[in-house]
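Provenance and format

Records in this collection were gathered into a single text stream. Each protein contributes a sequence line and a token line. The two records reproduced below are adjacent in the stream.
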Amino acid sequence: MPDPKVVLVRHPFFAGIDPSISETLAECAHEVSFPAGRFLAREGEPASGFLLLECGTVALELHRPGRMPIVLETLHEGELVGTSWVIPPYRWSCDVRALDPVRAIVVDARCLRGKSESDPKLGYELLKRFLPLFVQRLEAVRLQLLDVYGETPT
């Protein structure tokens, strides 16, 4: 298994990060893998961290009883899965399903929140990296809603 610190440093989400911060992140990280079809997270479950995809593809889905789920976004190698760990109540806002075998580094939220509270530099660096991701994901949902609820030609 690769060293989480090495994966963190070369992952696009943390490109150019201060080495001391990558050391701290690595203290909260470990590698995980999931087979195709497995749910990595379910809507409403505690969001205990985020994942840095090393390989594989996941779908962010909204469950609809009696209907097929809505795929909000598909994420691939080099992307980050999970922002719900940042803001209380720390619950997943959608389902996350592996579309093919996934290998990732998971960063434990409780560990990282604790370290961020005691190190404002770390907290600010994470804020600068996660806020654009929040905006990007919100825009993806907005575009998906436009597609789902768009007008039909007459």
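Adjacent record:
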Amino acid sequence: MSEKHLQTGDVLPPYSGKLRLFAMRFCPYAERSVLVLNAKKLDYDLVFINLDHKPEWIFQFSPKGTVPALEYEQGKAIFDSNIINVYLDEKYPDAPLQATDPLRRAEDKMLVENFSGAQSAYYTAAFNAQALQPNMVENYHKGLEGLQKEMESRGTKFLHGDEAGLVDFTIWPFLERFLALPLLGKTEFAIDSAKYGLLTTYIEAMKTVPAVKAYYLAAETHAKFTESRAKGDPNYNMLDTSAVCCMRPRKKKE
């Protein structure tokens, strides 16, 4: 698979008959759906797109041109990671990723919602540092503290239980990126093992989950991409080391 991000003027790769996910390699929301597809051990194609110079055809699958979008039949797609992931879990019920108890499913959704403040703080710290306010750092750590408290209450290896589930795959992409913040000089966002012992143990456990391991990027890699994006020139193709052997060539301009 090529890591090349297709852009304006590039043609849509031919449909193979498999599920096809349109994504951006460094997007945490797209990663959520990649992890679910991996966890389900589904056969799928992955197409990366440049979000600054979007190929015209992405709007056929996602009206706003956002990722992820899942093409489940040729020319038919659903978008938004939450919608996609619930669909996948219900469509392919083997190895279910959601709790069977309705109350626990509700608790998982509330946990994700309560964690959103930390996600917001991350985006400001990473891409708009001049707008960072002290209360945002506080919100970030409140999110981490709430997550650690919930893990302590549940007493399981993962939030879902003894195996990682949808709630883990929803939160993990942000934790993966949080680890890059100290490398960008944002030391106040460090996840200190002395304070967050249970959380750091969880992070290390998540790195070993096969679905995660197959897609995981190191903090140094996320930091490098973040720096390029913060400068206004995101290097989408920084991981691409292969020729685009399975994609049609870009159209020539008349």
